[in-house]
Design brief:
alpha+beta, 2 domains, 3-stranded antiparallel β-sheet, 2 helices
Length: 87
């Protein structure tokens, strides 16, 4: 019973997502036909934001320390567009 409900919910979710995707494509098609400059500007902006978001992290710093027992510990900082990672 529960698995049937889950399948129905998933199918409804897929249908909803497909409808949203269809609406977006329709809007983009209309924009491309009616205002090619706005369409080009929109696409260029999306590509620029996508490239920025998907850029690999840039190394920032590395700190090494030695403890009395000769164990090497290191801390590396990485700058990324949306977060700072310390290893």
């Amino acid at each position: 019973m529960a698995s049937l409900q889950i399948k129905e919910m998933a199918a409804a979710g897929d249908s909803s997502m497909m409808n949203q995707a269809q609406q977006i494509w329709s809007m983009l098609d209309d924009m491309a036909q009616n205002d090619p400059q706005a369409y080009r500007k929109f696409i260029d902006k999306q590509l620029k934001e996508g490239r920025e978001a998907m850029k690999p992290p840039e190394p920032n710093m590395c700190i090494q320390t030695r403890i009395i027992v000769s164990t090497v510990r290191s801390v590396e900082g990485v700058n990324w567009a949306r977060l700072l990672i310390l290893y």
